[in-house]
């Protein structure tokens, strides 16, 4: 984890005033005849939590998939750190310092928590053994325990397949994996959906802590009080387009719901 | 709170491998008690090991394939094809009959067998990983095609003329009383176990079988990896063909129709899940020896040997049922 570049981010009453870290414009994505994104735009600043909200089918998950390299948009542009980028694979997104907690978690249920934390980034032993591809399981396990400790993730056991853990613990591992590796931006698609009250608070704490380290956190949630509690800004998607933007401190649940359902719209949001 | 590490014993109890090892030991104990004079002898041990060596090499490759949640029905046919191409190459290099050929010819024969296996493995891998055709269908196709191709090349008959130096050394030779064929199978199995259990290649094999989409999203080259796994299974089938040829002194085009099913049964008996993501080479060793010990034991004890497949079937179905209910219990949480 590293601090935000430039440090020129001013967060006054939860609003970032600086060049955007991520600036996606006019993204279009079709699945067959279905238009999931119809010119959607989205902006995120370093050092802020921005929530992306919208009714079911508004295109939130599709937008996150396009911005984390899982799907490629049919058209539109994405700028990251002021430069235009091609997010054509998850690897490309990760190389930019972008990590994602997917709604379906994307963990390997048969592997243990440490193996999942290091999935695709396995540590190898030094020397000839490492060159042969031999894993340094001890070191990965040690670091994983340290990371889980830091993030307040409590697991019954570190040696069992994570499929045998509770839904909340599985989710905690997925969240931990993203924040451990991210250096600039974390997408979290419903990170608290399967969690109990205590674990939910812990994840929100983690989100704030990551934000305070200068990263951008994009939160997708259906829970409006949670959105207002943790976000600095809120962007609203409806029918595949951005229809409104709010400062969390200046808005209400009623206003957010109004924007989501189309009762309220802002001319300049798209 | 730091999560507690379970003791080794506790972790072992939770695995299928332990139970299947106990079943194997129990079988040996029962047959041993019934006929100690015939069962617990060096000769019986040696012949059981030798007869199982070729199948064990096939099963090592099959373990990787099944852990990716795939299947390879083609291994027995690839074994036949590789044996035929290898034997015929050696014959043609030595004027039509390689019986008295030297080591140079044998080495070429080995390379041809491995390359033949590799070619079929690569074809399987391409169709499965790139063209995304289900492994069951792809390898059902190559199961027929590889056998057909082998029979076309050999005109449907066994190929004789296997070099004596090969048969006398690899086929029937021993080192310090241990058959060379068994040593080769043991080395292959040990390397397979290390590759699967300790390396990144092995870790990715498990990850792909456990959740292919998750593996893809964390940047694992799933397509490439699957191709490598089927390639490995093919190369090992080629090696198995070479070993079988050395042992029987002939490249046989018959008698391997059920090698694929025997290998799969061994792997699954050994606790590797047909759903992918879980399994081990150590388990496969136990799994492969259970049918072998049953067959040997029935012969020695005087039970009609046709009971063997029935007994294997019962253990196999029980093993899969056990795996399934364990998974259900786990995923319910």
Automatic annotation (TrEMBL), chain A:
SMART domains: AAA. The keyword tRNA processing does not apply. CDD domains: ABC_Carb_Monos_I. It holds the Pfam family ABC_tran. GO terms for molecular function: ATP binding; ATP hydrolysis activity. InterPro entries: AAA+_ATPase, ABC_carbohydrate_import_ATPase, ABC_transporter-like_ATP-bd, P-loop_NTPase. Residues 22-264 form the ABC transporter domain. PROSITE patterns: ABC_TRANSPORTER_2 (PS50893). Keywords: ATP-binding, Nucleotide-binding. PANTHER family: CARBOHYDRATE TRANSPORT ATP-BINDING PROTEIN MG119-RELATED, SUGAR ABC TRANSPORTER ATP-BINDING PROTEIN. This is Monosaccharide ABC transporter ATP-binding protein (CUT2 family). The lineage of its organism: Bacteria, Bacillati, Actinomycetota, Actinomycetes, Pseudonocardiales.
UniProtKB/TrEMBL annotation, chain B:
It comes from the Bacteria. GO terms for molecular function: transmembrane transporter activity. It is a multi-pass membrane protein. InterPro entries: ABC_transp_permease. The chain crosses the membrane at residues 12-34, 40-66, 73-90, 102-123, 135-154, 174-196, 226-248, 263-290, 297-322. The keyword Secreted does not apply. Pfam families: BPD_transp_2. GO terms for cellular component: plasma membrane. It is found in: Cell membrane. Keywords: Cell membrane, Membrane, Transmembrane, Transmembrane helix. Its main location: membrane. This is Monosaccharide ABC transporter membrane protein (CUT2 family).
